[in-house]
């Protein structure tokens, strides 16, 4: 057979082979199935993005975290002036600018104050809740640092110039120099010992849902029924997401207390955790005119490597949660930081 004939037979064989393969592939994977795969794959790719803090989980929409930016709804937090070294006495001061670019001068009282200042070290080891003075343009108060590190300074307020009531939380970071010793991982902690009081937290956090948390206060094993109104409630709870310190909505349950009345031993809060993870909680409560701060650490249900019971009974955890031995505190217990 001559060469042209051989090439012709070879080409014909290849054509037959490809035709057979095409027929087999059509029988095994129909074109309609390929189209279905394309349709099903599109939503999967869309769902691969990061979850947002307002995503609906199981029919419950979580409140978004706040306090992760210097600006919200047009309101801007200036740089925070403060001492930069441990032990240096000075002033912490800042301004807030309104959406029109001028200084915000009107505020609406919320929890009996026009502005709440929350200062937390990045690892949660240091916490203060204070109320600076306002001179018509600048907020300020005497200040010094007990420990070095990176701090988040939150300004939580309701602007008085808005057409509708807005809850605004702005924040900036402040660096404090010194011999820094980071705290180890925050273990899950449901009990805290502070100034002779024992605070025990019950309830769970659930990502994407609002749940109830209850703290019961005892002293020497007896229920404390002499809780006094503080900031318009029986207690004030700050919740921060570990890591980025996202600021959560926490609302006290029940009617507002009347001045001069007492209550106890339980305080209940409605708390919305926007995402799974670990959260740092700080409860302020008042007895005999003195404010005490009890810190807790909780995981959302099913999140985190530590079981809630692992750290609850640990002496080390109780020691860390004791205000007199730990850096957690409130200006009511630190005379050098006035609560105005």
Number of helices: 4
- Measured as a percent range, the helix fraction is 10-25%
End-to-end gap: 108 Å
Structural class from helices and strands? alpha+beta
Q: List segments where confidence is low: pLDDT < 50 over at least 5 consecutive residues.
A: 2-61, 304-327, 331-340
- In terms of DSSP E residues, the strand content is 25-35%
The biggest beta sheet is recorded as: 6 strands, antiparallel
Q: Kindly report the CATH topology of the largest domain.
A: Immunoglobulin-like
Radius of gyration: 29 Å
The level 1 CATH classification of the largest domain is Mainly Beta
What is the average per-residue confidence, as pLDDT, rounded to a whole number? 78
CATH homologous superfamily heading of the largest domain: Immunoglobulins
Number of strand segments: 21
Shape: globular
The CATH level-2 architecture of the largest domain is identified as Sandwich
Tell me the domain tally. 2
What is the H-and-E element order?
Answer: HHEEEEEEEEEEEEEEEEEEEEEHH
Walk me through what this model shows.
There is one protein chain. This protein has 340 residues and is α+β, with helices and mostly antiparallel strands. The protein has 2 domains: 71-176, Immunoglobulin-like (Sandwich); 191-329, Immunoglobulins (Immunoglobulin-like). 16% of the residues lie in helices and 34% in strands. The protein is built from 4 helices and 21 strands. The protein has helices at residues 3-28, 31-46, 308-312, 315-320, and strands at residues 56-57, 60-61, 71-72, 75-77, 90-97, 107-108, 115-121, 127-130, 133-134, 138-143, 149-159, 168-176, 191-194, 197-202, 210-219, 222-223, 236-241, 250-252, 266-272, 278-287, 290-299. The strands form 5 sheets. Strands 13, 14, 15, 16, 18 and 19 form a 6-stranded antiparallel beta sheet that branches. Strands 3-4-5-10-9 form a 5-stranded antiparallel beta sheet, with no helix packed on it. Strand 3 (71-72) and strand 4 (75-77) form a beta hairpin. The longest helix has 26 residues, at 3-28. It is globular, with a radius of gyration of 29 Å.
